[in-house]
Amino acid sequence: MSSTKDKVMQAMRDLPQLPVAVEKLLAVMRDENSSADDVTKVLSSDQALAGKILKLVNSSFYGMSGEVSTITRAVVVLGFSGVRNVAMGFGMVSAMKKLGGVSVAEFWDHAIATGAGAQAMAPLLGSGHDPDEAFIAGLMHDIGHMVLASAAPDEWQQAQERVRDGEDPVTVEKDLMGMSHASVGQRLMKYWQLPDVLQDAARWHHHTKTTAGREQPLTTLVALGDVLACINGGDFENPPSELDLGRLLRMNCLEVEQIRQALSGMDQRIDEMRVFLKIADDGGGLGDSREPLMDDVGSAVVLSTDQDRVTWVGGLLQHFGCRIFPLRSYFEQEAGCESVRLVVIDPNSVTQTQLQKILPFLEQQSAQVCVLQDTQSGPMATQLGERYTALPYVFTRQHVAELLAGVPSGA
């Protein structure tokens, strides 16, 4: 442990610097007396950064109707906060390229999906939240992983494997490396003199009590973006438990329908954010990876009398391309029931008597049957769990793909 922590501490002493032009720009923007002319002068002094900003402003990322051909105009269009956000994002991508050890594709897939999710949640969390700042915070929230993986790749990989098995990431990383990716990310942002709210988002996005409160709205947006990124695709991190998600929603007066609403627009926004990443990477390959969407997924049936669970499970399945087939129509074998490839049973909605009638019917069907994991696992959940594959309450695209892998379409 001590030698591993020494490696991490050495990596912290050798942290990569932001590009000089980005440092100058952020320093100017920290000065309350700075003007748009001062910002323009700094940008104009570095042709590479200026070119990236002009390219981004004229890309699908911003969707401008007219061409922006000068830095002066770009500063006016973006505003101070917009220029700062773009510069921080570009600087972070440039600095992180100096590190190794992480699966680059998986890291950036999760980063831009979290940024897209945080941005999508910003207007839903209430007025006054800057969607572009939420995007940058989401993009940067896991940069501590890059440092840890570069300093101690074997231990970092071991930590990732334990996290995939269900252990808490912060606890595991402290155990194996002496520091978590959250605390390392905060220190790196402090070293770069980035705003405190970004440092806090990196430090506390896994801390349920912090993200479930309203004292740090940007941290909460990043935590929500993290949830959406896990659900939407990729296995860089595990989704939260039902309890943690419920706490996060309740404390921020959010409904599951709003999570579905944010998910619905994520695919397009992720594509737009890949444009940002490609420009930041000077046209490199960081923006090329993409989690393939499932096709020909057929229909699914949700066996539950709890309308909230029907809404949640059905909404996620629809997001992944499943059509929801009516429960009664399925049991009465009405036209179209042959398209059902997945049946999700809510253990809270089935009695022992009902189960005795349902099981023989399900055994005759070709659909894959799974049982929704319950926060409080009772006897029924245990009984069904012994017979069928478990599906987490907060399930992902990968969970559904794995369940459907052996089920022929149109069966």
Q: Can you offer a commentary on this structure?
A:
The protein is mainly α and 411 residues long. The chain has 2 domains: 2-16 and 98-280, Hypothetical protein af1432 (Orthogonal Bundle); 299-404, 3-Layer(aba) Sandwich (Rossmann fold). The protein contains 22 helices and 5 strands. The protein has helices at 2-13, 20-30, 36-44, 47-57, 71-96, 104-121, 131-140, 143-151, 153-164, 169-177, 181-191, 196-204, 208-211, 217-232, 242-251, 256-264, 266-280, 307-319, 327-331, 352-363, 379-387, 397-404, and strands at residues 299-303, 323-324, 340-345, 368-372, 389-391. The chain has a 5-stranded parallel β-sheet with strand order 2-1-3-4-5, sandwiched between helices. Helix 8 packs across helix 9 (153-164).
Summarize the structure.
The chain has 411 residues and is mainly α. 60% of the residues lie in helices and 5% in strands. It has 2 domains: 2-16 and 98-280, Orthogonal Bundle (Hypothetical protein af1432), CATH 1.10.3210; 299-404, Rossmann fold, CATH 3.40.50.2300.
Task: Please name the defining characteristics of this protein.
411 residues, single chain, mainly alpha, Rossmann fold, 5 strands, 60% helix, Hypothetical protein af1432
